[in-house]
Amino acid sequence: MDYLRKMKGTTQSPPRVGFREICWSWIGGLLGIAAVGYLNDRLFEGSDYMLIIGSFGASAVLVFGAIKSPLAQPPNLIGGHLISALIGVSAYMLLHPWIWLAAAVAVATAIAAMHATKTLHPPGGATALIAVIGGDKIHKLGYLYAFMPVTAGALILLLVALIVNNIPKTRRYPEFWI
Q1: Nearest one of 168, 164, 163, 161 to 72, comparing CA atoms
Q2: 142 touches 96 (CB < 8 A)
Q3: Are 55 and 128 in contact (CB under 8 A)?
Q4: Radius of gyration of the chain from Cα atoms?
Q5: CB 27: neighbour CB atoms within 10 A?
Q6: What is the pLDDT of residues 20-58, one digit of tens each?
Q7: CA atoms of 103 and 99, how far apart (whole Å)
Q8: Is there a contact between 155 and 78 (Cβ–Cβ < 8 Å)?
Q9: Residues 7-25, buried b or exposed e (16+ Cβ, 10 A)?
């Protein structure tokens, strides 16, 4: 029974955020993903390279919508994605005959490595998973995937987050760098 009681929770839901906060989060998300997507189209259209991956959508939620969260800070954004990408590529290379196992090992190992390096960033789990299940275009990149699109795209999101999140007097980003 104690086990089931833990699932009840211990606190109430946090309060709603204000309209201005919603607007700034929307603006940041729009500009961050637009910047990565636009540069992807301008620089890599018709090539085997890319700059945008699905896990950046979740990163945008954190760096524009939860800017005070430790999970949204620059070391977590950049380090979490980079570490997870390297692990995901390695898992695919070692275990590609068993995609289900490669996927599980990639995500679990990425979680452990992010914890160990103090770079926990939940979208990193998706970045590791994309390295395994992303298809031929991703697999052909090999370890380059960790740098392009992953680190380069995360750096673009960070740049936009630094600019947008510091425009209003009520917001400050980041909370820490190290």
Answers
A1: 161
A2: no
A3: no
A4: 17
A5: 16
A6: 999 999 999 999 999 999 999 999 888 878 899 999 999
A7: 6
A8: yes
A9: eeeeeeeeeeeeeeeeebb
Q: pLDDT per residue over 115-133, tens digit each?
A: 999 999 999 999 999 999 9
Is the pTM higher than 0.70? The answer reads: yes
Enter the tokens of residue 102: 């490669």
Chain centre distance of CA 48: 22
Higher pLDDT, residue 50 or 65: 65
Asked if 65 contacts 165 with a C-beta cutoff of 8 angstroms, the reply is: no
Phi and psi angles of residue 173, each rounded to the nearest 5 degrees, phi first: -145, 135
Q: Which amino acid is at 146?
A: A
CA distance 57 to 33: 7
